[in-house]
Each structure stands twice: as C-alpha cells, then as structure tokens.
Amino acid sequence: MIIHTESLMGHRRGAHVPKKLIRQRSMGEIARTLLYLFFTAALMSGGILPHLHLGPGRITIQTHMHYPSSQPFRTTTLSWQTPPAVEQAQNVLYSTVTAGASNGGKNCDEGSEVWQNANRPNVTCDAGSVSINNAQKSSAGTFLTSLPHNLTYPDDYIVEAQVQQDTTSHTDFGLFFRIQPGQQPGQQAGAYSFLIHPNGTWSSYVYDATTGAPTEIAKGGSVGDANGVIAMNVLALGPDYTFYINRSPDPIGHAHDTTYLQGTAGIAMNGKGKLTVQSFALYTQK
Predict the structure, then answer these.
(1) Residue 151 gets which letter from DSSP?
(2) Predicted structure pTM score
(3) Residue 46 is inside which H or E element, if any?
(4) Whole-angstrom Cα distance, residue 116 to residue 163?
(5) Closest Cα to residue 244, out of 159, 185, 184, 167?
(6) What is the spatial distance between Cα 52 and Cα 59, in angstroms, rounded to a whole number?
C-alpha cells in the first residue's frame, strides 16, 4: 500500500514555497517575539506578574495588582495543599472500606485481622461501608485488636476513619486509640479518644485504666456539620498526639500525655446513636 502525504499548507512534499513568503513569516515571528519580551519586561517591572512562593506543605501563587493611591491594594491567593501526615505515610498496615465485625463476630471485610465489638453494638456489614448502632448510653464500638497476617501492632501510628453520623443521631463519636489489652472504653478500660460532639466541636480524652473515668486533654471549636461526612485522623507519636479533620494538612489540635504509649485502635460512639463507617486505615509515619 502506498500512502501519499501532503503538508499542512496543502503542498505536496518537495513543492516549491516562495522565498518571499518565508521571509514574511520569519519577520512576523521576530516581531512577535520582540513584542512578547518587551511586554514581559514591562509586567515584571510593574509588579503585575505572579510571584511563586514555595513553602512546606503547599504552593501559594500570589498576584499583586497596583492601583492608584486612592484604591486599595488587592491580593489574590491560590493555594495547593499537600495531603496531611496520613497521606504521607510510608507503610500501610491495614486499610478497608468495611471496618469491624458482624454481630456474629465475622470480619466485615473477611480479612485475617481481628476485630472486637465492645459493649454489644449492632454492627451491619454492607457492600462498601459498616453501620454501628449503639442502643446504650455507655460507649460501644468496634476495635482492631490484631493486624492482618499477624503483623506487629506498632506503638506509634496514624489511625484514620471516614465516618458519618445518622441524621437522627446526636452523640459523641470518633476514634479510640492506644486502647489497653483486654479492656475497652466504657468497661473501666484505659485508652485515648478523639471525639466529635453533637454541636460539631471536638475533644480528646484519656481514660483511667481502673475506673474508666475520662479526662479531657485537648479540645477545639466546630469542625463543621456533626451529621456530615467527616474524615478523622490521629497521629500518635510517643506521648504526643496530633489531630486532623477532612484531610487538611493543618492539624486542628495537639495533646501531650504519657499515660499510655502503646495500644490498639478503633471506632466508637459515646452514647445512643448510629454511625456509618466508610473507611478505616492504620499507617506508620515516614
């Protein structure tokens, strides 16, 4: 098969192009290049071109427009943010969209990890999520007590969950971490928690291992609609804890407490309510 090709100008290959046309096009390109260079220099000297700022965790582009002295100076900032600490984790130990165990004790994701339900909540395993229904006033939830394939549970880790409280539910909910072996919050157990309150504010507590009494170690303002979809992250590093919401690179708070330096993690509700867990993961930091 022979394919005949033609140039974009419609000339057959090897066809003659007038030299005058070549000269005219070259001069036009030169003129446009000079005009572009002149215009660029003028913009830079006038402070109109954007300045690019590189900083930790984000790239910020600021555009400055200068106005007469009678007009205010205006700045527009466009930010691209890097993911939070959990997104920069080096080692994913466990990740699932169906966290927890059914009422019969079977893992919702049918993996080799071990989940333990505390205080008998009603746990429903769905195709891409898990529902936790707590009919009691005390805490109830589901906890990851053993990692898949008998992996060692690290002392320091990042625990993450994306959850949504039912519109008819108005209770505290969130992450429990550094849970002590053989005990669970609400059953005179030791642990820490990162909880969202019904009004959208948040707190972190440490629970006494003997009495189960909570002590608040950190708190903060509203993180948004308590019945909306919320991604919660906790970085547990030694005695220091950092809290993130909705995968922002900026933490909403910190806590320091030396009571527990190791322990497991999970999800709980601190009273009557219904919670849908859309994902859960455990990471180690870089």
Answers:
(1) P
(2) 0.69
(3) helix 19-46
(4) 18
(5) 159
(6) 8
pLDDT digit string (tens) for 225-283?
Answer: 999 999 999 999 999 999 999 999 999 999 999 999 999 999 999 999 999 999 999 99
Pick the closest to residue 267 from 154, 130, 151 (CA basis).
Answer: 130
| Cβ atoms of residues 192 and 204 within 8 Å | yes
Q: Is the pLDDT of residue 23 over 70?
A: no
User: If we measure between CA atoms, which residue out of 235, 237, 131, 118 comes closest to residue 182?
Assistant: 118
Q: What are phi and psi of 212, to 5 degrees?
A: 75, 5
Tokens of 166: 């039912």
- How many Cα neighbours within 13 Å face the side chain of 227? 7
Helix (H) or strand (E) holding 146: strand 140-146
The token pair that represents 115 in the structure block: 């989940």
Distances (CA, A) of 93 to 13, 25, 124: 62, 62, 24
Q: Quick one: pLDDT at residue 189?
A: 76
SS3 string, 20-45, reads HHHHHHHHHHHHHHHHHHHHHHHHHH
Amino acid at 77: T
Q: Percent of the chain beyond pLDDT 90?
A: 60
